[in-house]
């Protein structure tokens, strides 16, 4: 058996084991990189570590560290409550506020599961309190997270753009962002109509949402465990939160306007906040999504081993062998969607895009549209109850029959897997963007 075939079978085994045994895929990928690289490829340590994404490691740590500080000092609580209070008594707008909040959180750097973990308890609590469909609110949270998930400074966006740059492919950060935003916005609108959103227009609720339910945040000095609130229970701004909001704004302006490195900028801003408010910074360092960092770095290191062994060219030629480029592109989109519904979306993207490189190099399919289609297909299915985001929604549902709600999420996720890849393929790939 060739080294290329062995490495592909091991990649499949990584996905199966990570799904069935709940083991971090990155840990498996590092071990596989060592085993396959050494035994099948004859690589030394330098050859194995050649694919380690050091620049992406800094992006992941820096952005999640800054966002963890925002969560620890109550800035995210303030943002959530401020946004929800804006709807006043208009109950029909609450699902859209939930969508917008999670979109903004992921767009400015929150990992998708982190954003869902912040907003889902509030959203599902509001659903139970006001008789809103939990499936509607849960879907709005997840699709909101994916809508903002591919901004140039987001984790997903940074990951895909880094992979595209490494593979010397033509990419477009704005097209990638707008594709995900547009697809998820349309899906959210359909869900809103189908699951009772229009009926909410006839109902009003109290305008004050009150203090956060997340229990995070700190005092003006950065030391308390509870957010500062006024007499009505509304979270107030304090110096720590104002400084954090300014830091988030600086991250956006610095990276988009002045083309500063996302990771280095984020970690520098986080360090400045940590120096002034040490207690919040100390708690935040433990909230960095190390599991995500490990997952992405492990998968991309293994992909580097695949490149060293020639597996990328081998697999790309196999896909090209389908004979019909558009059909091959559609198959890749469905592979990404189906596997991602049960495994890590970012891990799937880290593996699929490099595997598609030889196929894209033929020039018959536009790389910009294809990359956007792959990215959207692999993430829009996160509503599945087997994914992290879907599981968070299920776990936070209030006063519902969980078995019934699980089946609803499963059916809805299945519909998304069956329909969306074909639609994004038709819109983004068939016209030949690239």
TrEMBL record:
- Outline the extent of the Dicarboxylate carrier MatC N-terminal domain: 1-149
Q: Where is the composition biased (Low complexity)?
A: 212-222
Mind listing the UniProt keywords for this protein, alphabetically? Membrane, Transmembrane, Transmembrane helix
Q: Which domain of life is it from?
A: Bacteria
**Transmembrane stretches, by residue range?**
47-70, 82-101, 174-195, 288-306, 318-339, 409-433
Chain positions covered by the region annotation Disordered: 209-232
What PANTHER family does UniProt report for this protein, alphabetically?
Answer: DICARBOXYLATE TRANSPORTER 2.1, CHLOROPLASTIC
Q: List the protein's name.
A: Dicarboxylate carrier MatC N-terminal domain-containing protein
Organism expressing this protein natively: Amycolatopsis antarctica
